Every structure is written in C-alpha cells, then in structure tokens.
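Worked problem 6 (solution included).
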Amino acid sequence: MKTEKIVGLLKTKSILKQKVFDNTSRTFLMLKEVLSEVTSELNPSLAEIDPRVTVEYTNRGMFEVQLKIAGDMLVFSMFTNAFEFDRNHPIWKNSYAAKNSYNSICGMISIYNFLNDSFRYNRTADLGYLIARMFVNYEYYYFVEGKQQMNNWVNHFGTAAISRQILRDIVESAILYTLNFDLLVPPYDSVKIITLEQMNSKIESARFQTGKRLGFTFNSDDISAQLKL
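Solution. The predicted structure is:
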C-alpha cells in the first residue's frame, strides 16, 4: 500500500516539480535575452552623456546573471528547487491556487540590489537587498512579489502566462526602482565606534560593511520609489 503511494507521488508530484524546473529554466533563459537587449539599447544613449555611466550585462552561468547600472548591481538568481507556500501566504486567497494545490508549486527567480563597489572591491560583508521575487508554475503562470506590492500582486496569478514583454516590464521596473533606491548615510550611533582592525581593513581594501540601508530597518513600505509590475 505504501509502495503504491510512493509510486503515485513520483508519477505526479515529482514529475510536476520537474516541469516547474524546466519552465523556470526557460523563463530564466528568456530573461537573460531580455537583459542583453536592454543593455544594448541603453548604452548608446548613455555614451553621449557620460562614458562612465554604463549598463553592463554579465552572464554568470545557468542560474545567475548580473546587470551593472552605473553604481548599482542587480543580481538575478534562479533557484533550482520548486517551492510551495506556507498557509499564511496571500496566494491562498487566489482562486486559481486554491482550487488545486499543484497550481501553487512554483520555481523562483530573485532580484537583489547590491552596490557595484561591493563587487569591484570584493567587500564580501556588504549587504544586498531583495527587491523582487518572480514565481513560475508548471503552466507558465506567474506572479511577482515586490516592494510595496503587498495588496494586489497575487490577484492575477492564473490569468497570465510569463512572456518576453512581461519580463521586459519586470526588468525595467527593477532598474527604475534601483535608481531611486539611494544609499543612505548610516545612523551616527551605528558607526561611531570601530576597531583598529576595521580601520586597517578599510585602509587596505575599502572593506567597511556597506549597504543602502545599513543600520536601518528595510521594510516593504520604507522606500518612496515603488516597484510597479
């Protein structure tokens, strides 16, 4: 009896998760193409303004790609696993997800914002911020979790399949959000005392821990610029 259940799950759930992975992989490949296109389109205009201000696309393998935008770095990272959502997640208010539990099993692509100098100077302790997560299921239906999108971002799940144009919208929204997400001066009290080791490290390799909101609480409502998808 248990053997039959095991075989049954392998035939259904395990195969479904493999399809989710395949769809997410194809989506990520399409995302790379979109990022490359955006880079090619933006740079000619930027060269006329200031050659130091550029957009650079770097493919770092099957599951990661970077987009340098002037002083910022966007990192797009695909996870190789399929995910289910906890019971408190708003997705369960969506009729498409609620009618079949397999509909809500998704692959995930995350978008992080770092400072470019964190990579340039190998400041491994610097902080990056998750600004959006894209979810894709076995039918190519998608939704995006983004900053200040906590009310209605999941409503359309099950009505629209991922496409090149949607990925373009996501990329452009992430870029706009990043450019408006400024580096804040850390609170005085959080940096008023340092060790000699920290000072020597800074002198040698500029490795003070840095992040756009270092010392501040980074909540969904703390940025005036919105990621509108």
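Discussion: The chain has one domain: 2-183.
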